[in-house]
Design a protein that fits this description.
Shape: globular
Oligomer: single chain
Order of helices and strands: HEHEHEEH
Number of helices: 4
């Protein structure tokens, strides 16, 4: 189910103060990186990923691949930082950024 405009605005507010939990770099989109991405999305639901790439087109292609591999929604991309969201199957109140900052 696609996110509504209100949902996206709320997730942007929550994600504003988050720090990147993953940094995409030299090693590319390896199986280990995809596994770590999926673990972080399951734990936190809403995460920032820093994408180190040469050009804007490369960054856009990498972010697109990350959303596909992680089955996530791209909430926002500013420069080399992407804000990704995927609802957890069993959200943890201690880990989930969405639950922790629900009233943001």
């Amino acid at each position: 189910m696609p996110l509504s405009t209100q949902d996206i605005k709320r997730l942007r507010r929550i994600g504003h103060h988050l720090k990147p939990v993953l940094i995409f770099g030299d090693k590319g989109l390896s199986d280990n990186f995809v596994e770590e991405l999926n673990l972080r999305l399951e734990d936190h639901e809403l995460i920032k990923v820093k994408v180190n790439a040469e050009t804007r087109e490369d960054r856009a292609a990498i972010v697109q691949a990350l959303t596909e591999k992680g089955s996530a929604e791209l909430i926002q991309r500013i420069g080399n930082i992407a804000l990704l969201y995927r609802p957890a199957q069993k959200p943890s109140a201690k880990l989930s950024n969405v639950l922790r900052y629900q009233n943001a």
